[in-house]
Amino acid sequence: MAKIYQMFEIPEELQNKALEALELARETGKIKKGANEATKAVEHGTAALVLIGADVTPEEIVMHIPGLADEKKIPFVFINKQADIGAACGIDVGCTAVAIVKTGKGKEIVETLVNQVKALRG
Predict the structure, then answer these.
(1) What number of helices (H) and strands (E) belong to the chain?
(2) Which letter does DSSP use for residue 59 in this model?
(3) Which helix (H) or strand (E) holds 79?
(4) d(CA 61, CA 48)
(5) Is the pTM of the predicted complex or chain greater than 0.90?
């Protein structure tokens, strides 16, 4: 069941692309891990893409990020399991949210993903 902050469903294929882009950005670019750091990156307008866990409890930890990202015109995607975000970040625990600040070698994937998410949202 979708959480209250989850505005739209992301197909599994797009989630995998987002996680792949995150891994590339971690290795060759720059990322900000956690809800607080992702929020700061969105507020400062430095985020290229934000990944948000769809299974975060309590919801209040991340429910402000989609609205803020929309306001700043920063694309975001929901990932079903925060454990997958953590693994893509290279940590052994789940990660509630992460912002890709510098895409590195994942630039093309991020651009494609952003266009697909825009089309999905209408």
Answers:
(1) 5, 4
(2) G
(3) strand 76-79
(4) 21
(5) yes
Domain extent listing, the chain? 12-121
**Architecture in CATH for domain 12-121:** 2-Layer Sandwich (3.30)
Residue 87 is predicted with a pLDDT of 97
- 25's enclosing H/E stretch is helix 12-28
- Three-state DSSP at 30 gives strand
The one-letter amino acid at 12: E
List, for the chain, all residue ranges whose pLDDT scores fall below the cut of 70: 1-5
Q: How far lies 4's CA from each of 7, 52, 57, 60, 117, in Å?
A: 8, 13, 12, 10, 19
pLDDT of the residue at 3: 63
Structure tokens at 44: 């400062």
